[in-house]
């Protein structure tokens, strides 16, 4: 029997890219086994992200570093997948001839055929937005036992067209997977040891999938059905838009025990003027009132958010409005970035804030957020929490997992195995984790 070839995938960016990389590996599973090093691979795939500054140039730099591997092994095949592949297309092969394959995020179900093409000595390019459902064409999730937590894509694309964002151009319009297929995939994951799923979408709470007999499923209804699956203990979802946080989804946070008390709800700015320039379609006030309603439904929920500082034309007053919003919300987690231009987006053509000013604002914002995060972590000391055990720790007898609030928890002298959900008492709060003992 011929030994399987080796596949190395390097994943950039968001959780959806992590999910996509898993599905790409599964689609090639009849021919390849995964390896952790590029040096011994027969095929290398870079699954790219276009969100960060100069994303394409970083991919070209990585391709330059990989080129010597191909010179040593002419049979090595190199592919570029994901959002940079979608945006750059054939330009990738023109700039870096070592690349054999370029595939966009909506076409990776065609990877086996593309791989066969490159093995025959040809190149393969597919950055279409095909009419067929790629998820229907993909293989099942496989029979191997999986980690206790898994991502599950339910929605892709975005119709919001925020002025700073490339997602509508690289992932396309909003599309929701049929609820029956999502539920089937969730059951397959549970059969293979998964206890927690995180539902993914560029705008996940805009989910509207077709269910049995043509019924319309909102995200809230989908979560309710997922909660009925025996063995599935925890449900999360990300990333949401404030405008799509409907009454049923808010209520679900108080009604469904398996829906974890953590919500990532990006606001981006606390200034109404900047929000309008971002084309966000909500105000700071409407966002704050929404947080109030969510916390009324689930008082202990931990909030997370995204912020962009130094957005074109942002003034000191605009930035102070953001700081005030952060003070009012009190985030347990938050991700903050200095604005960077994305070619082809409206904001890229506007007057830019000086880099030094944006840097200073980012440091101030991150200082405030870090203080809030530490305060919430410290408030967990003395509390009894549930932890999904995910791996062994560095110390003897130690296990590591996630609390319902998504905090990393180290359990000393644990009497538990990976995949168990155990009750613990928090005894200490570190900078990025909690320490606990099992009870």
TrEMBL record:
Residues the entry annotates as binding [4Fe-4S] cluster 2: 158, 162, 165
Entries under InterPro entries matching the protein: Elp3/MiaA/NifB-like_rSAM, Methylthiotransferase, Methylthiotransferase_CS, Methylthiotransferase_N, Methylthiotransferase_N_sf, MiaB_methiolase, rSAM, rSAM_horseshoe
Domain TRAM: 378-439
Residues at which [4Fe-4S] cluster 1 binds: 14, 49, 83
Domain annotation MTTase N-terminal: ranges: 5-120
Matches recorded under SMART domains: Elp3
Required co-factors: [4Fe-4S] cluster
Cell location: Cytoplasm
GO MF annotations, alphabetized: 4 iron, 4 sulfur cluster binding; metal ion binding; tRNA-2-methylthio-N(6)-dimethylallyladenosine(37) synthase activity
Main location: cytoplasm
CDD domains assigned: Radical_SAM (cd01335)
Reaction(s) the record says it catalyses: N(6)-dimethylallyladenosine(37) in tRNA + (sulfur carrier)-SH + AH2 + 2 S-adenosyl-L-methionine = 2-methylsulfanyl-N(6)-dimethylallyladenosine(37) in tRNA + (sulfur carrier)-H + 5'-deoxyadenosine + L-methionine + A + S-adenosyl-L-homocysteine + 2 H(+)
Residues annotated as signal peptide: none
Primary role: Catalyzes the methylthiolation of N6-(dimethylallyl)adenosine (i(6)A), leading to the formation of 2-methylthio-N6-(dimethylallyl)adenosine (ms(2)i(6)A) at position 37 in tRNAs that read codons beginning with uridine.
Subunit composition and interactions: Monomer.
Protein name, UniProt field: tRNA-2-methylthio-N(6)-dimethylallyladenosine synthase
Species of origin: Sulfitobacter litoralis
Taxonomic placement: Bacteria, Pseudomonadati, Pseudomonadota, Alphaproteobacteria, Rhodobacterales
Gene name of this polypeptide: miaB
